[in-house]
Amino acid sequence: MFKWLQFVPKKCNTLSTRNLYVGALDGGLLRHAFRTDDANKDDLPLVDDSISAATALWRKEELLSRLQSLLNCSHGQTEKLYKANRKALRIFAPKLLTDNIELLRANGIEDKFIYDNPRVLSTPTDELSTKLKLLRELPAVDDSKMLTPFLKASLKSIQRMIDVAKQEKIAGGNRINYISERTGTEVRTVIKFFATNIRVYRIALDKFIANLDLCLKHLEPAHVVRHLSVLAYAPASIRERLKALENSPLEKIKPWMVRVPEIALGKSFEAVIEKGRQPVFKDSVTGAWFETYVLKRMESLLGCTEETSREIYEKCKGSVHLVENIEFLLEKGVLAETIVKHATILMVKREDLQQKIATLGTLQCLRNLNDVIPLCVLKAYQLRKIVTNLNNEQLGPVNTNRIYYFSDSTGFSPGEVTEQFARRTFMFRVPKDSFLANLKLFLEHMNREDILADLWAFKYSPGIVAERIARAKEVRGKKLMPWMVRCPDVVLEKSLQLTKESGALLGENETIVEYFCKRLGLNREVANSIILKAPSVRNVRITKVKKVIDYLLDELDYNPNDIALNPRILMHSLQTTKKRMAQLKEIGCRPKSLIIVCKSQRQYDLFVKEWMDSKERKKKMQQYG
Q1: Is the pLDDT of residue 288 over 70?
Q2: What CA–CA distance (Å, rounded) separates 322 from 261?
Q3: pLDDT for the residue numbered 385
């Protein structure tokens, strides 16, 4: 299709496109192909007559010259007009700007308005003409030229404003005059702020008048004019907030104080007023003033550092419920350290947190509320179900629940156990007999840290757990882990086989350091230095270490010193090592150091290339020498 468009003549009489707008296509090929002589009559010429020129901006110098002659303005002002409308010029011809200027001046609009609001010129001429026509229809307006600030609003908003103004009956003829009379403000000033809050015309007339009356009783008229958006709030909310503000120690009450969240007006003013300054609020949720208040308040309540309070604030994503939730928890006896450690529970609404704490309070055998605070990360319905199950279950000779039973058996604090149980809620659903039997088996054969870190093994029946432990114990002895209970049989068999092979090499009590001493003929000090130089060697299977050492010493005739100097070779893939050593042998290279074999593929390829280039240079020198 684009190939066809290139050959379409400029004069397309069969397709009149005077009003056709094809701005959605990138590049503007259709604009160029379907442009008619009529459309180009008064426009500035293209840079050239090519398809690529159709996608370029029009000549800037010619456009600036025309603007300067129309407005009789300075070069700096024309540059400002051009930059403000540069994006529009990618779609529209410059005639749009000149036509709009002529239209505005024909309607008595001053040049100063054009300089102050240059983006108005980017409005399609027909739309701009419609806006001017609508504004002249606004009732009780002596001079429609005063309404020019509304030209920045959308056509739909202006149409709605005019329709509402024609239908309603209000003192002054319209809401602009009504506010001007009530506040004693000039009409031009009211229009300036009304244009930025044109949605005030969406408010029902009764609500508009009631809110204005209410605000004028408590706020300065000039402040109300500047913050007309406050009139959109429910009268009951405005009345309640103003009543609360009357009892505050503030010298002045401003409209923004009616709009912000309650948390921003509680105890937040205390610190600000102590410094003798009135608060400044930028945004209802994430403003700098609000964030500073929350951080300072948390530092005071929790006795923490600024870094800690900021971490909590970011972790909770600046929740507006932070401070009130902290205050509530401290009232209930929750320690500040517990709150800091489990800060995410502060994100919920205070009502939800109160409900969760009340649910935890019904837990039987509860020793301390701090022990079960981690459970607050769960949903309220989950928490109710867990508490009900724990209350219906009896464990041990002394009546207790699973959390305290596990804590007493393993020696962990109840808080640590609860934190893990909250992440693995199935621990509250495992049958009581299985829970007790598995815990006993694990404590007999495993470390308590490993048990708490991997609770998934509790989901298996005691019979399977006992059988797996017995199989693993035959090979690994005391070194048992919970994952051996839950892994597939194939994985367990492979692990046990590798353990047997390693045991055969190392013996019963031999360590990898002792193996290095014996296999490489090194003293213990040198063997320890290998581990310090490459600590990850400890994690490599001894069977793999043996194969690498055998290959380097027996097949490549390297000595133990070479391995001691470059222990990374023991962690490197044996297959890759063999492949690279074979390649180096083919090009006649036997590296003095094994480190090059352990390098990344890019570094290794660079070494090979440099070696080949060096070899080629030596060969040429010998020929010409």
Answers
A1: no
A2: 13
A3: 93
Handedness of CA 479, 485, 491, 492 (dihedral sign): positive
Cβ atoms of residues 286 and 267 within 8 Å = no
Cβ contacts of 275 within 8 Å, gap of 6 or more: none
Helices (H), 219-342: 221-226, 235-246, 256-259, 268-274, 288-302, 306-315, 322-331, 336-341
Any residues with CB less than 8 A from the CB of 504 and at least 6 apart, and which?
none
- From 179, 257, 181, 187, select the one nearest 218 (Cα to Cα): 257
Q: At what angle do helices 462-476 and 489-506 cross, to 10 degrees?
A: 20
Give me the count of residues in the chain: 625
Between CA 221 and CA 227 the distance in angstroms is 10
Which of 268-277, 374-383, 573-582: highest mean pLDDT? Answer: 374-383
At residue 508, the 3 state secondary structure works out as coil
Helix and strand element counts for the chain (H, E)? 37, 0
Cα separation, 452 vs 458, in Å, equals: 10
Question: DSSP letter at 283?
Answer: -
Alpha helices by DSSP H, listed for 487-566, are 489-506, 512-520, 524-533, 542-550, 560-565
Residue with tokens 């909770």: 316
Question: Are the C-beta atoms of 202 and 174 separated by less than 8 Å?
Answer: no
Residue 35 — φ and ψ, nearest 5°? Answer: -70, 135
Question: Buried (b) or exposed (e) across 199-222, using 16+ Cβ within 10 A?
Answer: ebbebeeeebbbbbebbeebbeee
Residue 599: DSSP 8-state: S
Cα four-point dihedral sign 24, 28, 34, 39: positive
Q: Which of 274, 228, 279, 273 shows the shortest CA–CA distance to 257?
A: 279
Q: Are the beta carbons of 443 and 396 closer than 8 angstroms?
A: no
Q: Provide the 10 A C-beta neighbour count for residue 37.
A: 9
Q: Which helix (H) or strand (E) holds 127?
A: helix 125-135
Question: Cα separation of 13 and 10, whole Å?
Answer: 9
pLDDT band at 227 (very low <50, low <70, confident <90, very high): confident
Handedness of CA 164, 165, 170, 176 (dihedral sign): positive
pLDDT per residue as tens digits for the range 249-261? 556 677 777 776 6
- pLDDT band for position 493 (50/70/90)? confident
Is 0.85 surpassed by the pTM of this model?
no
Question: Where residue 51 falls among pLDDT bands split at 50, 70, 90?
Answer: very low
3 state DSSP class of 9 = coil
> DSSP letters of 24-85?
TSTT-HHHHHT--HHHHSSSPPPSSSSHHHHTSPPPHHHHHHHHHHHHT--HHHHHHHHHHT
Segment 389-409, tens digit of pLDDT: 998 888 866 678 899 999 988
Instruction: Quote the pLDDT of residue 146.
Output: 87
